[in-house]
Amino acid sequence: xxxxxxxxxxxxxxxxxxxGDKMEVVTKRNLGAIPYTTDENGRFDDKSKTDIxxxxxxxxxxxxxxxxxxxxxEMYKEEAVKVEEMLDENLMNIEGLDHDNGFKWxxxxxxxxxxxxxxxxxxxxxxxxTNMAGRFNIVGNFIRAWNNxxxxxxxxxxxxxxxxxxxxxxxxxxxxxxxxxxMIARAHADTAGKAFVREDGSVNHIVxxxxxxxxxxxxxxxxxxKEGSSWTRGQSWGIYGYALSYKYTGEKxxxxxxxxxxxxxxxxxxxxxxxxxDYRQPADVDLEDSTAAAITASGLIELSKALERxxxxxxxxxxxxxxxxxxxxxxxxxxxxxxxxxxxxDNLLNNCAVDYNGDGHxxxxxxxxxxxxxxxMKLEGSALEIF
Length: 387
Ligand code: GLY
Fold this sequence. Notes:
- With about 375 residues, the protein is mainly alpha-helical.
- The chain has a single domain (about 5-380), classed as Glycosyltransferase.
- The chain has helices at about 5-30, 45-50, 60-70, 75-85, 90, 100-115, 120-135, 165-175, 180-195, 230-250, 250-270, 290-310, 315-335, 365-380, and strands at about 135, 140-145, 155-160, 205-210, 215-220.
- A three-stranded antiparallel beta sheet has the order 3-4-5, with no helix packed on it. It has a two-stranded antiparallel sheet with strand order 1-2.
- The relative contact order is 0.12.
- Glycine (GLY) binds near residues 161, 223 and 233.
């Protein structure tokens, strides 16, 4: 991976300073909360009051840990610990646990355990990992996504997003020396590589298996435009998730999958570096998703670093540089065009989207902010390895 130019280094330093300045004010006025999005006045909501089991509830904790690393300000550490403790209510609610346990307990309990060897954090994260491992379908070799809310039978559902949760299982095997967690993570990654990733490197969001036979029975469009389309956040989960499976297993096949998705994504990213909700949405639709831009950037940096580790002979040096270049362009575009730097609003990223067909468009979403901060800190070499 090439070094940053001095101009790029200056931009990283300046951007991290802007993040630190804004988030100090924002965090002080949201003490004890777990934000997801902002209201019409640009102020954060508090998911701890309305839905403690919401899948994004770990990101604020992760953001607090990254900001603690960035600034050393104890306020962030205290808030991160509060989020972790509030999530105990979720841990005791079986209906609120699912494949997304990684998104909740990696940025909170695993992060704290890695920093301080905290026994309670260890227990929480291992309970979350054990529950996630219990979702493995042994015939279909996949980790089941979601539960049966709204009376929909989801026993055979798997989603590409789950790749980002696998580090919880890799961590569980590493701390217990019990290989079962990692076996499950690898089996899921292998299945997803075949069932989700298409010939051209694009990925499906959802694959539905028959839960009794493991046969694939459907590949709906999920949060993307339609069946066969290419939901941008799903593509970003794929790039990042497979780079992580490489990081934890050292298996070249996962690096290859991450590169295939990344090459496809780089061929689709518009010249503006403003990322749509779906790379195959109609040309006259200008809906965007800044979260996909931030996650793609962080995933490409991860991939670039992974290639550097793998590639002693330098075979992929050029590719690694291209991924890094693309990540920097995505992040610069967010910085210049899609971030509210003023302290009148709580969020960083604008123009985020929940999905294509719903009405959650042009909003702020907490994980967009998290991955933007993480990616900028990765460029500086200072990010905590939360995933
Ligand atoms: N994991 C759900 C989403 O990305 O919206």
